[in-house]
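Reading is simple: each integer encodes one residue's backbone shape. An example follows:

___
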Amino acid sequence: MTAIVEVLDRLYLGQYEETAAAGLRPTHVLSLDGSTPADLPAMLAITIRDLPAVNLYQHFGVGGSFIASGLDEGGIVLLHCNFSKESQGITVSVRVPVPP
């Protein structure tokens, strides 16, 4: 069982399958393993290979915009990823401006 971790207010990291047990109902899901674990209107799937040489920078724009949009709408955003991709989820999330 993996934990759902709150990265920022309303921005979480973990596996979608664990959200119900954590009492979390995400409105926006950014999947970094290319899967679509949820049937949500606000779902973005990006396939990122879990290799050290992968260029994550190319995903900052679309991933960061999706996260920022979800937060701006007052939603709850989940960065869905497998255990091995948790650091990639955090890396993509750094593109999001932190509120003061």
